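Re: [ENG-882] Designed sequences occasionally contain unexpected residues at chain ends

Forwarding the minimal case from QA. Structure tokens:
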């Protein structure tokens, strides 16, 4: 499959370094010329993954992440020199799949992008017809959506994958280590806080179905998806 990345970054030197590296992997890289019309460019290009800085001309990266998430579940990685923990928390709560601080190691960025692309698209055909019904809720893996008769919520790729792993072992504890290994393939690239944020965000989306208590934290052990009586 031919992949396309959209890089929302106003530092041309960083953009060029990223572009040249990913072109070595035959991945098309698109940049932004007009930072007031990012969504128009996104809609025109339909990228498979977005890498976005926080500090940008006109509007910041949080704004554009929020706008993209209104209608799309495409994976998003933040790449920023800002190092306050709340920046990472905000990014994850808005639907980002990862957060990498500048200066960054290009090999780590490549590994993360490859893992997310593989997770999101490499086995897409395999999962097209897969749906799971759990506690009266339908999980549609092909559309990254959960719904019942009254409500529906879109899931990010990470949220969907976490839920899928938990439901594979429903009513049994899944350790944090297993979740991190399966999500990111190699836990050297994992920030432990990222998993917690994703699970909490998934619980928040479950609230509108009355199921927030169905993903339980087992202190010191991991998480468990439970079936209601």
């Amino acid at each position: 499959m031919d992949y396309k990345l959209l890089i929302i970054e106003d530092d041309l030197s960083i953009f060029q370094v990223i572009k040249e590296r990913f072109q070595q992997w035959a991945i098309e890289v698109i940049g932004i010329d007009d930072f007031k019309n990012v969504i128009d460019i996104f809609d025109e290009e339909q990228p498979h993954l977005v890498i976005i800085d926080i500090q940008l001309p006109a509007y910041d990266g949080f704004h554009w992440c929020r706008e993209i998430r209104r209608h799309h579940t495409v994976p998003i990685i933040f790449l920023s020199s800002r190092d306050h923990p709340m920046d990472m928390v905000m990014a994850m709560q808005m639907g980002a799949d990862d957060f990498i601080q500048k200066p960054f190691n290009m090999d780590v960025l490549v590994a993360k992008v490859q893992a997310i692309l593989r997770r999101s698209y490499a086995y897409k055909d395999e999962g097209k017809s897969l749906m799971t019904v759990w506690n009266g809720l339908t999980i549609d893996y092909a559309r990254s959506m959960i719904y019942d008769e009254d409500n529906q919520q879109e899931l990010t790729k990470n949220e969907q994958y976490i839920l899928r792993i938990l439901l594979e072992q429903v009513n049994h504890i899944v350790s944090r280590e297993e979740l991190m290994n399966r999500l990111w393939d190699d836990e050297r690239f994992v920030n432990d806080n990222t998993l917690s944020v994703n699970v909490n965000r998934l619980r928040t989306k479950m609230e509108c179905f009355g199921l927030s208590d169905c993903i339980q934290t087992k202190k010191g052990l991991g998480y468990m998806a439970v079936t209601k009586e």
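QA comment: On inspection the terminal residues look reasonable. Helices lie at 12-23, 38-45, 61-69, 85-93, 106-122, 157-168, 176-184, 192-206. Proposing we downgrade this to a documentation issue.
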